[in-house]
Design goal:
single chain; signal; 8-stranded antiparallel β-barrel; mainly beta; DUF3455; 1 helix; disordered N terminus
Length: about 180
Amino acid sequence: MNRVTVALALVTAAVGLTACSATQTEVKPLAQQEVAAPAAVKVPAGNKLIASFEGDGVQIYQCTNSAWTLLQPAATISDHGKPVALHFKGPIWVSTLDGSEVAATAVPGASVKHADAIPELLLKTSENHGKGQFSDVTFVQRLNTKGGLAPAGKCTDGAETSVPYSATYTFWSAAK
C-alpha cells in the first residue's frame, strides 16, 4: 500500500467517523490532561497546555541507497477514541472538527531516543492556518511513543513499508 493510499484511507475513515458522531453527540472540549515529559522535550515557560490526544497510525519508510528513510507519518489523532485530527507529512496536524491546522519543525536536540520506538520530540510551530483548535498552537510534543521504527537491514531502492506506531500528542499555546 503506498503512502497516498494510506493517507486517503485515514482521511476517509476519520471524516466518516466524525460525520457520524457529530449527528449523535455534542463535541466535547479538548482534553487538557498534563502528560509527563522527559526534560529534553519540555515546553518552554510561557506556554500552556491546550490539548492532549492519542495518535495511532503508521510511519511510512522508503528505501533509498539500500537503507530505510522516513517518508512521512500517517495517523489519526483521537480524543477518547473519537477522531479529532489527522497527522501527515510536514509534519502537519489538521483538525477534522474545524479544519484548522498546525505545521511544526523539530527543535534541535529536543528528542529522547528509545531502543524499541520512534523518539519522543518537541516541535515548534512554523505555521498555523484557520480558526479553531490548532489556530494558536505554539509547540507540539510527541510523547509515550510505541513502535514506528524503520525495519532493520538492507532493502531494495524504491520500496516502501508502513510500520504501526502510537504516541500521545500534546498541543501548547502562548500563555495569555
